[in-house]
C-alpha cells in the first residue's frame, strides 16, 4: 500500500503521463534554446525534478517480463494500433492495451525513439515486454500480412483524451494469449501481473 499523499500521487501520475522530464534534460533544453537565464527557466530548475541518475537508479529495480513472441497469439485489433512502418523500423509489436497503456513486445528494450513514435502515433503510454530477437522480424511480417489480408483498417491515432477501450478487441471476442518465457520466478511474476485475474491484495501496484 502506497504511503505517498494522494495529492503528490496524482501530481506524479500527471507528470509521468506527460513524459518524464529530468533536471538534466531541462537544463540541456534551456541552454539549447537560450532561455536558461529567463524567469520561467530558473523557476523550473528550482522545482526539484529528479536527476537522470536518480531516475535510472529507480529503473534498475524494474522487472521486465519475457514472452515467447512466436507462441503468443495477439488479436489483430491490437496489432493495428501501431503503424507497420513504425513496428518494422523499431522492431516492436503491440501486445495488449490496458486502458491508456499500450503494452508492446520487443527484443531490444533500448528503444526510446520507437516508443516515442508509438506514443505519438497512438496517444497511449507505452510499456515494454521483452522477447528473443531470433525470428522476431518474421513474426512482425506475418502479423502485418494477416492484418492486410483481414481488411481491418490501421488505426492512425488515438481519440482525444487517451485510448480508453475504443481500440479494444471487437466485441471482446479476441483475447491475448501470452506464453511466458524465462526463469520460473519470472514466469510466476508474469502470470500474476499479466493475467486477466485480479492482482493479489498484498501486491497491488501503485
Record the SSE blueprint.
Blueprint: H1 6-17, H2 23-33, H3 39-45, H4 52-59, H5 76-79, H6 84-90, E1 93-98, E2 101-106, H7 112-122, E3 125-130, H8 136-150, H9 184-194
Parallel strand pairs: 2-3
Antiparallel strand pairs: 1-2
Helix pairs in contact: 6-7
Q: If you had to describe this structure to a student in words, what would you say it looks like?
A:
With 206 residues, the chain is mainly alpha-helical. The chain has two domains: 54 residues, no CATH class; 128 residues, no CATH class. It is 42% helix and 9% strand. It has a three-stranded mixed sheet. A hairpin with a 2-residue loop joins β1 and β2. The longest helix has 15 residues. The radius of gyration is 19 Å and the shape is elongated. The N and C termini lie close together (8 Å).
Specify the helix fraction band.
Answer: 40-55%
Q: Pick out the low-confidence regions.
A: 157-173, 195-206
Output the radius of gyration.
19 Å
In DSSP terms, counting alpha (H) and pi (I) runs of 4 or more, how many helices? 9
> Could you give the distance between the termini?
8 Å
Most strands sheet: 3 strands, mixed
> What percent of residues are in strands?
5-15%
Strand order of the largest sheet: 1-2-3
Structural class assignment: mainly alpha
User: How many structural domains?
Assistant: 2
Shape: elongated
Number of strands: 3
Order of helices and strands: HHHHHHEEHEHH
Mean of the pLDDT scores? 76
